[in-house]
Design goal:
It is a single chain. Helix content is 12%, strand content 44%. With 112 residues, the protein is mainly β. The longest helix is centred in the last third of the chain and has 7 residues. The chain is globular.
Length: 112
């Protein structure tokens, strides 16, 4: 299994809150690699939450849309990052956020 880089868009097996033995595949963006088998990620959702949370809305007209490999307009949640083991990441990245460094600067993120 490959290592993942900041800005990679991946599919993560997220456990359901109601039943943590069941999982749902969801897109996420790699923020950093914490250690050999642990990554800090940002959740990606199809609900536009720009008025309530720090994040970036990506619609189908955005230059990032196609490069990210997503199939619907999506919101990258740039707060409350979570750590996931490599074992919950499915396969290779589906895409990449094209200018990760600029995203970090614009939102004044501190994620490590």
């Amino acid at each position: 299994m490959a290592d993942f880089q900041p800005g990679d868009i991946i599919i993560v097996k997220f456990p359901y809150k109601e039943d943590p033995t069941q999982f749902k595949d969801r897109p996420a963006m790699v923020m950093s690699k914490t250690d050999q088998n642990l990554y800090t990620i940002a959740k990606i959702t199809t609900k536009d939450r720009t008025r309530e949370l720090k994040g970036e809305w990506i619609d189908e007209r955005s230059p990032e849309f196609k490069m990210m490999g997503i199939d619907q307009p999506s919101f990258i949640r740039l707060e409350d990052f979570i750590k996931v083991p490599k074992s919950l990441i499915k396969g290779k990245p589906i895409g990449k956020y094209p200018d990760f460094t600029k995203l970090i600067e614009v939102h004044k993120l501190k994620y490590i």
